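Researcher: Re-running this chain for the archive, since the previous output was lost when a drive failed. Same request as before.
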Amino acid sequence: MLFDAPFPLILSPMDDVTDLPFRQLCKRFGADGLITEFIASEALNREAEKSRRKMLFTPEQHPVGIQIFGADEDSLLRCIDIVAAEQPDFIDINWGCPVRKVAGKGAGSGMLNDIPKLVRITAALVKRSPLPVTVKTRLGYDETNKPIVSLAEQLQDVGVAAISIHGRTKSQMYKGNADWSLIAATKANPRLHIPVFGNGDLTTPYQVVEARDRYGVDGVLIGRAAIGNPWIFEQSHRLMEGKPLREVSVAERVEVCKSHLLSAIEFKGEHTAIFEMRKHYGGYFYGLPHFKQFRIPLVTLTRYEELEPLFEKILAFYS
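Model: Regenerated structure tokens:
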């Protein structure tokens, strides 16, 4: 078993989002599993410092997986040794990223256009890895090509320990609605025995519970809904346990946001941390009335010494 929870809630890997400081926060608020940002195999083989830092995690973050991507079999095989040396709990192969700079080179969901190659490379990686190998992928390449039910079975047969499925095709990118019926069909395949985790459009704790009760998956990956909202894991657990959702106060939002920013500054440096934190503010302060006056300075100020008094103003305004 990769995860101890009866229905694991896993932080889905997102580039420039699921770094070490944010993973630490999500773990604090109830994530049962964590996966790093995706890392290019070629960059790891070149010993690129930024890519090696993406693999770092703390002992508290177990169980944690390191996700890699690439299109070249030899490059992926070489980087397996590098990743395994970090001693994560599993290695996750990204056959799902739809962005052009990845899929356009045949990596990520671009590999869904060549299923035999995808399965062959996965089999080689499983054979090479001393750790469990998991796969994150999509329903298929486009509307006319959705082989996920048979693909999951093929991946199981070459030794994959679990599969995570985003309910869209490569061509859909992030548009339209995720199709959970095909995720459910994959899980319902009587020949499939590995865990199936669902992903896509889980924006509230209620949808997490629906994924469990309606689609029968073994757990879920939560992605964009966690940005600036690490509480979604805690709230989803509360709902699954029959407990009422708790209100997260403005004071707690400010405290956690500041803590996140300070940890990111310590990990990445002030300039990078402040720039990357801007995508989190919408989540941290979602739904607060009259917040427009604070939004522009939050995403334009460039020094922590300027941001700190702004956080205090936000706290005072809503007290």
